[in-house]
Write a structure and sequence with these properties.
The protein is mainly α. Helix content is 64%, strand content 8%. It contains four helices and two strands. The protein has a two-stranded antiparallel ribbon. β1 and β2 form a beta hairpin. The protein starts with 9 loop residues before the first helix and ends in a 5-residue tail after the last helix. The model has no long low-confidence stretch (mean pLDDT 85).
């Protein structure tokens, strides 16, 4: 899979911006569908909910990508950090981004950055420890 060096959370960020800036009639709180529960209550799922669920699944792929070692993973982490900073700036400056959905996307991007660096550091420490063992 050649997803190296590309922060996958850019996809939900782009989807959010397309909806927020180009589709005036679409709201992140509008109900897409409802799921009947056993408690006889309908669970309303909104556009924002679906985008956050999609982003969480992508975050899982990003964390798995972080387990690889090499110079490409460093570029991937730096691009994820840049994406987080851009998202944070947009959240604080642009009025269309001042929603709870975008706040959750920013939080997922932050977890991607911190988790990616943490996983890479732990993986590289284990790799260094294994290389120090003499194999006779």
């Amino acid at each position: 899979m050649y997803l190296l060096g590309f922060p996958l959370l850019l996809i939900p960020f782009a989807i959010y911006n397309i909806i927020a800036f180009l589709m005036d009639g679409v709201s992140f709180t509008a109900t897409l569908f409802s799921v009947p529960m056993l408690s006889k209550v309908d669970l309303a799922v909104s556009t924002g909910d679906m985008l956050v669920i999609f982003s969480i699944l992508i975050l899982f792929v990003e964390i798995v990508k972080a387990t690889r070692l090499g110079s490409r993973s460093i570029v991937d982490h730096l691009l994820s950090l840049i994406l987080f900073l851009v998202m944070l700036g947009e959240f604080m400056i642009v009025k269309q981004a001042a929603t709870s959905t975008f706040l959750l996307l920013c939080t997922l991007s932050f977890v991607d950055v911190i988790g990616g660096f943490s996983v890479t550091i732990r993986t590289s420490q284990r790799d260094i420890a294994l290389e120090g063992i003499d194999r006779a």
